[in-house]
Amino acid sequence: MPDDETNPLFLTRRLVQEATGARVIWDFDGVVGHTEPLHEVSYRELAYRRGYSYEPNFFDALVGHTEQWIWEKLIADGFPASLDEISGLHRERGKVVAHLALDGLQPSWLAATLMPALASVASHQVVVSNGDPDLISALLDAWNLGCFVQVARRTPGSDKEALFRGFCAPPCVVLEDSDSYLALGKELGAFTVGVRHSHNLRAALEADLKTYL
Fold first, then answer.
1. In this predicted model, what pLDDT tens digit does every residue of 130-178 receive, in sequence order?
2. Out of 3.40.109.10, 3.40.50.150, 3.30.390.30, 3.40.50.1000, which CATH number does the structure's domain 8-34+106-212 have?
3. Hey, is 144 helix, strand or coil?
4. Cα–Cα distance list, 55 to 61, 75, 78, 81 (Å)
5. On the chain, which terminus has fewer CB atoms closer than 10 Å, C or N?
6. What is the model's pTM?
7. Is 100 helix (H, G, I), strand (E, B) or coil?
8. How far apart are CA 101 and CA 211, in angstroms?
């Protein structure tokens, strides 16, 4: 395998170097766990329960956005619900995702390899995500990774961006699958790693390094 950023051994060595004395920010969906297929299935399941269906590639444009934004977009595009039903949809979908994830989701090779490898050199590792922090914590503990990383929790009225800005102060390493958060990480002075997977093939992933799940 060539000695470049597509080589897991090269990536590990490089990130150990970049993360020494730095904070490491992990996105969860699409980085720590390849959850995007589960999220897509959950949105399709809720549509099925209501006799509704999506276009084949509907989920591509939704990856990386908050659930509130996604439901507003889906409802505007025809999903049979009103905006005041979003909180109920959120709870219903959360149960579907939790069942799918706890039933068989495994950590990405990135998380399984790098979280332990960076633990002895990074100042701190934290998951900053739009996802359910309780579910994320449960999964990390089940994977024996919870001892290496903190799960950031949003306060009422806050969002992922606010959390991200609060944690992303140099020296910092960011692992993300979202163009917007990679750009924000660069803006804030972080070393960035763009993560490619099956559900962000159209993303530019402008980053200092790129890798694949």
1. 888 999 999 999 999 999 999 999 887 788 999 999 999 999 999 999 9
2. 3.40.50.1000
3. coil
4. 12, 14, 11, 17
5. N
6. 0.88
7. helix
8. 23
